[in-house]
Amino acid sequence: MAAPLLADYSKLFDLTDRLILVTGGYGHLGRAMVLGLLAHGARVVVLARHEASFAEQFAAEIPDGRVHFQVCDVASTPSVQAAFRAIREQHGAPHVLINNAVYSAGQQPDALTDEQFAHGLDGSAGSAYRCLREVLPYLRENGGGKIINVASMYGMVAPDFAAYDAHPQFLNPPHYGAAKAAVIQLTKYFSSYLGPENIQVNCVSPGAFPSARVQEQAGFVAELERRNPLGRIGRPEDLAGAFVYLSASASDFVTGHNLVVDGGWTIR
C-alpha cells in the first residue's frame, strides 16, 4: 500500500460537512466546543432547552447557516427521541454526538437527599447513556461514527477540600464526581461494545474551568491556580481542540480513551 500523500495528512482535522450534535452547546464550555468545530468546517446542531439562550450566544457568529438549534431535554427519553428524529429529517444522519449537557441539585456532601443524589447521577451519567442509546440507529445508518462524553477531573480524583475553605459556595458535591467517574466507565464499556460497528467512543475530562461568575471571586481563582502545574485556570478555547481532534478522522484509531484537559491537575 502506498504511503499517504501530504495532502491526505492536511485533512486529518477537516470536519467539512460532518454533522455534529452537541448537547448543552451554548454554555461556558459548550460554546467554545461549537465554535472550534465550526472553525474546522463542521455542521453543528446544539441540543438544549432554551432557544433564546442559543440565539444570544451565537447571533453574531453563525457562519453560513452551519449551526442550528434543536429543542431537547436530555432528562426525558421522549424528548431525546423526538429531537434526534427531527434532526434526521432536517439535516440528515449525524456523524458525531457530544454529550455535554449536565444538571444537578444539592451540594452539602453529607446532607444530600436521596432525590438530589439520584438527580445528580442522572444529570451526568444517566443523560449521557440516554443520548448515546438513542443516537445509535442514526450512527449505524452512516456506517459508524463517534460519541464523545464529557467527564471531569473530579471523576478521577477527589477535591482538595482546602481550596474551598474560604469559598464553600463552590464546593464540588459527591454525586457530581461519582457521576463523572461513571461516564468514564460508560465510555470504556461502549467503546468495546460498539467498536465492531466502527463507532468510536471517547471522553474528555476538563479541569479547573470556572465560569465567568465564579471567576469574579479572585481569591478562589488564586486557590485553583496555585494547585495547577501550569499555574492558571483553563480558558474555554483550551478545551476546543480536544473535541475537534476526537470528532475528526485524526482520531479514527482512538477509542475508549479519556482525554484529560486539566493543566496537569490530576498528575499530582
Automatic annotation (TrEMBL):
Pfam families: adh_short_C2. It comes from Hymenobacter armeniacus. This is SDR family oxidoreductase. It comes from the Bacteria. Coiled coil: none annotated. Belongs to the short-chain dehydrogenases/reductases (SDR) family.
